[in-house]
Amino acid sequence: MLEIRNLHVKLEDQDKVILKGLDLTVESGSVHAIMGPNGSGKSTLSYVLSGRDGYEVTDGSAVLDGQELLDMEPEARAAAGLFLAFQYPVEIPGVGNMTFLRTAVNAQRKARGEEELSSTDFLKEIRAKAKALKIDAEMLKRPVNVGFSGGEKKRNEILQMAMLEPKMCILDETDSGLDVDAMRLVADGVNALRSPERSFIVITHYQRLLDHIKPDVVHIMADGRILQTGGPELALEVEKNGYADILKAHGIVAEEA
């Protein structure tokens, strides 16, 4: 599904290297969790894959289903099946959720050479998916994320994901700022979208999210690269013991809080 090889990235406006030869393979239908201390490059990885400005790729590749993502514009990456759920979803005043989602869905369908959804077909589909995800229909009538709670913003992203039907979903600290109940609702939405054709990268600091979104593979990231890979038990080990031993084993000095 996704093959990242020897990825090196630095900030465009300063000579600071963030990713230092990162390798990662995500198989179809799998959920990979990425954990690591602050400043390890986790969010940078998500931004670079989605095509955010401000980063320069100096080496390496990122191939999604045979297509080199790094050669594509952000909208082309989205049409190819990449979806990024932000840590802090933005508000878009004056743009209704329904209008936003229909525009996004049809833009992607057009880019793939597919027929656009009519208003009737779109309405039928979004109502069905909102109901399946237990999302209040009233949310569909509001401007995008305006006045939404943290949990509502994240659930709205899950609805966007359901409508766009991406192949590769990246969740960048989607549990940030959520209470236990809101996190469980968001996790339930993610789990409802798991399928053999869809993969997830879940970036998180905490085991609490992985209690609800069960990963197949857990990676520990620091100093711009993957240091260790294992099963769900690796996240439990980190929750109990922290990162110090893993960092020390790779010659990395942990920063003091």
UniProtKB/TrEMBL annotation:
Q: Where is the ABC transporter domain?
A: 2-248
Q: Which GO terms describe its molecular function?
A: ATP binding; ATP hydrolysis activity
Q: Which Gene3D superfamilies match?
A: P-loop containing nucleotide triphosphate hydrolases
- PROSITE patterns cross-referenced by the UniProt entry: ABC_TRANSPORTER_1 (PS00211), ABC_TRANSPORTER_2 (PS50893)
* This protein's record includes keyword Nucleotide-binding: yes
Q: Which UniProt keywords apply?
A: ATP-binding, Nucleotide-binding
- State the superkingdom: Bacteria
Could you say which protein family the record assigns here?
Belongs to the ABC transporter superfamily. Ycf16 family.
Query: This chain belongs to which protein, by name?
Result: Cysteine desulfurase
Please give the organism: Paenirhodobacter enshiensis
Q: What is the lineage of its organism?
A: Bacteria, Pseudomonadati, Pseudomonadota, Alphaproteobacteria, Rhodobacterales
